[in-house]
Structure formats: C-alpha cells, structure tokens
Design a protein that fits this description.
By secondary structure, this protein is an alpha/beta fold. The chain has one domain: YbaK protein. Helices cover about 25% and strands about 30% of the residues. The strands form 2 sheets. Strands 1, 2, 3, 5, 6, 7, 8 and 9 form an 8-stranded mixed sheet that branches. Strands 4-10 form a two-stranded antiparallel ribbon. Strand 2 and strand 3 form a beta hairpin. The chain is globular and about 35 Å long.
Length: about 160
C-alpha cells in the first residue's frame, strides 16, 4: 500500500518510481535486510519536534539522528517527536512506516548529505511491506527543496 498523499505528490512531479513488496518488517534496519537492499540506500524518516511544529529528518536506515548536530545546523532547540504526533502527521500510513517525502505531508524537511548522489534510493511507501524505489538522481531532484546538512551518526 502506498500512502495516497505520497502517491499524489510523486505522480504530480512526474518522477519515475517503482513499488517493491517485501516481507513484513518493523524497523528500517530490518526492512533493508528483508528487502535485500543496502542500509545506506534506504532513506529513513525521523519526526523531529520543534516549538513551532514538526520537522522531518531524512537519514540512511543504518544511521541515527545526532540531535546536537541537527540543533546546530538548524540553530533551534528540538527533540524527537512522540509516537502520537507521528500518527497525526502520517494519518494515512501505518505507525512507524512514514515516507521520507516531507513535501507530500506539508512538512519542512532536512536531509543528511549522505543520502545525495546515490545510484538508487528506497524509502517507505506508508506500510511495513512496501518500498518506493527510485533512481538516485530522481530522488535528489525530489529532495531538492529540503535543507541539506550533515547530522547523523552510526548506531
């Protein structure tokens, strides 16, 4: 299943993508494993809580957000959003399967530099069994409006 808002956004931009089905996975790391894709090519979304609303951080699935680096990059106080906020923002997605395309959900987005310039990129479609696959150049174009920076670290 693909999120209706994500599908509408991708289709409106006309960027080519494929849907990849895989066995159920609960986490991004597990998803990369069961889908047989490199963890550093699977974009993971992390919802960040700021005083004036949520922000979507996009990082490789084998990394985690370094909140100190992200705060420094954005010059703002922030923290991880609680799960109920995820469910409110991504209301047409399964809990924990949020797509990384903030623009589809009217979210400001910041993406780690390590997600740029890849040959292929995968990301959650909105459930725990489907990924969107794109050429890296198309993903880079899709993420062009996002703020870019270096703010993640290995698990």
């Amino acid at each position: 299943m693909i999120s209706a808002r994500l599908k509408h956004h991708l289709d409106s931009l006309g960027l080519p993508y494929d849907m990849i089905r895989h066995p159920y996975s609960a986490t991004a790391a597990e998803c990369a494993e069961v889908a047989h894709i490199p963890g550093d090519h699977l974009a993971k979304s992390v919802l960040i809580h700021m005083e004036d609303g949520p922000l979507l951080a996009v990082i490789p699935s084998d990394q985690k957000v370094d909140l100190h680096k992200l705060q420094s990059l954005l010059q703002r106080r922030l923290g991880l959003a609680p799960e109920y906020e995820l469910d409110q923002v991504f209301d047409d997605c399964d809990t924990g399967a949020a797509p990384c395309i903030g623009a589809a959900f009217m979210l400001p987005t910041v993406i780690d530099d390590s997600m740029s310039g890849l040959d292929r990129v995968w990301f959650e479609a909105g459930d725990h069994k489907t990924l969107v696959e794109m050429r890296g150049a198309d993903f880079d174009e899709l993420m062009q409006p996002a703020k870019h920076g270096s703010f993640c670290t290995r698990h």
